[in-house]
Amino acid sequence: MGWKQWVAAKAWRDGVGTLAMALAVAVVGVASLPAQAQITGTKHNLGSTGTGVNKFSGTAEICVFCHTPHGADNSAAVPLWNRRLAAATTYTTYDSLGTSSLDGKTAPVGSVSIACLSCHDGTQSMSAVINAPGSGLAGDATWVAGTWAGANQTAGRLNATAVTNLGQDLSNDHPIGIQYGGGGISVTNPTAATIDKDFKAPKNKAINGTTVWWVDTEATPNNTREKTDMVLYTRGTGALNPGYTGQTVAEPFVECASCHDPHTSNATFLRISNAGSAVCLACHTK
């Protein structure tokens, strides 16, 4: 298996506890702009050249706040993640409310989501990376002397009042670590109907021996997985999903990156515009 294929396969097997997102999609051949070219003018450019609300004077780099070419956190099903991931049990999710609207089984929050939360739960600075720019783990002199500016942060941590700070109690947020459509779909029956009939049937294909699912967002579905589709993450037991015994075979789950792409220039990093509630209605039939 080549490097690109390995990254794609690892990213889509999200289990443990993430951003198989657009970067993973790009490396398997979906036409797209380079990641840095896409995020330069967005709020995810946290470096000194950033034009967003928050920025760090210690580097003009962009990718370093999330990725590192060496020594990444290998518990993440995300390409070369440069931040330490919290344990899935750190987070309280929507299913804790016991609402009857959840028809499917839940699982520990997937690493795709925890990667997002490594900034967006507000517990650590956005510059708390594993490997900083320059020589040595601490980074070069410019990085060490760097300071944060921006109304939505304090010492690099997202303010508690910032809408981007989700905290660790996610019970007031869209369910993650949840079977798509209430379950019913699995690698042994990839085209089955969802248990909850208020969901659109996802598409599926095999990549490097792993079945992956997505929901087409085009008005006329093209049956091709793209960055602008709603991405579902393959979860199962064992290495795919430690601690989850609800299903013995891999199946599609919803995570943060199902709806969000951190490399896009779309508002709030949604995979498509939500005009007319298009993001919601991509999956939900209402």
Q: What's the SSE pattern?
A: HHHEHHEEEEEEEEH
Rg estimate, integer Å: 18 Å
* Spatial strand sequence of the major β-sheet: 5-9-8-7-6
Distance between the termini: 42 Å
Q: Number of helical segments?
A: 6
How would you characterize this protein structure?
The chain is mostly loops and 286 residues long. It has one domain. It is built from 6 helices and 9 strands. The strands form 3 sheets. The chain has a 5-stranded antiparallel beta sheet with strand order 5-9-8-7-6. Strands 1-2 form a two-stranded antiparallel sheet. The chain has a two-stranded antiparallel sheet with strand order 3-4. It starts with a helix and ends with a helix. It holds the Pfam family Paired_CXXCH_1. Keywords: Signal. It comes from Ramlibacter alkalitolerans. This is Cytochrome c3 family protein.
